[in-house]
Design goal:
By secondary structure, the chain is α+β, with helices and mostly antiparallel strands. Helix content is 45%, strand content 11%. A hairpin with a 3-residue loop joins strand 4 (312-314) and strand 5. The longest helix is centred in the N-terminal third of the chain and has 30 residues, at 43-72.
């Protein structure tokens, strides 16, 4: 077994860990049954091997949870002056595992809770009795419970967990939580409402999923408003059809979806807000980096001119069909910014004449970067700080080569947590972490204008 051979040569623990991070995962690296060929096994043997690999997966998951918990508990990842101010381990984990910082933070929190609040559950994963998804289901269910109640739920459900599917286990957990939860219903609701959120996940073909966890009364209010708006448009469509003006073939489900977009459009363009912490324009609409919130769509000039059908790019989503982009471009009421690209870019170099980027340079940096330039971070550039890569006080220029967008947290990581960054001419940012590891974030790509096809039979030059 390769792993045992490495441990036998007397390497220090860190050397073994470094080998594990880069070794070739050949057959039998970690287990004596790695070289087994399913073709050499009977049907029963193949099932036994399948169970063996599943138990091995659970054991590896448990080891990783213990490692994540140890990292989360490492005081070296917090500033010495104020350990409670910021904890930077999530950036190291995110870059090392190619995760978003938010996903890394969630994994670290789960690992810390499993080791401290649900040690028996982690032990059950390590022994292969249950899987990590079982453990996470239990952890999510007891997250808001006090420790004694969480322990009681764990003790109740683990006795049968090894014989249950994930769905059966979740039902057992739900019953146990209801039995052991010491909070009254009002307190339960308050704690649950603290978890409210709205998430957006890209889907195929220019679509996206909008998922919200809301208080039931708020969700009902939204549903009623959408039903009312959809019914109003349906009535108007029937009236128009009766008058011979053509029909509206949308289903009620489609009308409700369109009504939600209309509501958001009105909110983004017409609704004043009052807050001393938010910069507002003259009409009370909030500003990000000095401009009103917009939807940014990047379209190749050749696509706008109808010469090709290259996919466009929707900020925060990714590629969208050219037809959708062109429909957006034709909408005079939209809150979007159309950005056309060709082979030439024009931007003034403001050198060291000013620290704060002028408006046109700021617009260029935001548009170019689109998101925070820290690896894995997807915070929109319009909600980021514009940072001098080489500090202005150290001779850095205020120009497009020395400016990039960083969210507030990663701006602080650069200045307060010993993360270092450089930018190469191709737009790639190169980061070095406090532990000396190197990570890169390549520039986002835009649609490029297609060159016209060459004439296969050009006229003679005379």
């Amino acid at each position: 077994m390769v792993g045992a051979e490495v441990l036998d040569v007397g390497w220090a623990p860190d050397q073994v860990a470094a080998w594990a991070a880069s070794a070739d995962f050949g057959a039998g690296m970690w287990t004596p049954f790695g070289p087994l060929d399913p073709a050499d096994l009977s049907r029963a043997g193949r099932l036994d091997l399948l169970i063996g690999w599943e138990r091995t997966r659970a054991w590896v998951d448990a080891q990783q949870q213990s490692l994540l918990a140890a990292l989360a508990d490492d005081p070296d990842f917090a500033p010495a002056a104020d350990p409670a101010a910021r904890h930077w381990v999530r950036e190291e984990v995110a870059c090392a595992l190619r995760l978003s910082p938010q996903t890394a933070a969630a994994r670290l929190a789960d690992a810390a809770d499993l080791t401290s609040r649900l040690p028996a559950t982690l032990a059950a994963v390590q022994s292969g009795q249950i899987t990590l998804p079982h453990a996470r289901a239990l952890l999510d269910a007891v997250r808001t419970l006090p420790d004694p109640a969480a322990t009681a739920v764990e003790t109740t459900v683990l006795t049968r967990a090894g014989r249950q599917t994930l769905a059966e286990f979740k039902r057992s957990v739900t019953r146990a939580v209801a039995h052991h939860d010491p909070r009254d219903p009002a307190e339960q609701h308050t704690d649950a409402a603290a978890q409210r959120r709205v998430d957006i996940y890209p889907a195929d073909h220019g679509m996206a999923h909008l998922i919200a966890l809301l208080p039931a009364d708020g969700a009902a209010l939204i549903a009623t408003a959408l039903d009312t708006a959809a019914a109003r448009t349906a009535t108007a469509a029937r009236t128009a059809a009766t008058a011979g003006a053509g029909g509206d073939l949308r289903t009620m489900a489609q009308r409700r979806a369109d009504a939600l977009i209309d509501l958001a459009t009105d909110l983004a363009t017409c609704t004043p807000v009052t807050s001393s912490a938010v910069e507002l324009d003259a009409t009370g609409v909030p500003l990000w980096q000095g401009r009103r919130p917009t939807v940014q769509v990047t379209v190749a000039l050749s696509t706008l001119l109808g010469l090709d059908t290259q996919p466009a790019d929707l900020a925060g989503h990714g590629p969208i069909p050219a037809a959708l982009a062109l429909r957006i471009a034709g909408d005079p009421t939209g809150t979007w910014r159309r950005l056309t690209t060709d082979d030439h870019g024009h931007l003034l170099d403001h050198g060291r004449t000013t620290y704060r980027p002028p408006a046109n340079l700021r617009e260029h940096i935001i548009t170019r970067d689109r998101t925070c330039r820290f690896p894995g971070c997807s915070r929109p550039a319009r909600r980021c700080d514009i940072d001098h890569i080489t500090p202005y006080a150290q001779g850095g220029s205020t120009d497009q080569c020395n400016l990039h967008c960083l969210c507030s947290r990663h701006h602080h990581a650069k200045h307060d947590a010993d993360w270092h960054v450089t930018r190469t001419p191709d737009g790639t940012t190169h980061w070095t972490s406090p532990t000396g590891r190197h990570y890169t974030k390549p520039p986002d790509t835009y649609p490029t204008t297609a060159k016209p096809p060459e004439d296969p039979d050009p006229p003679p030059p005379f």
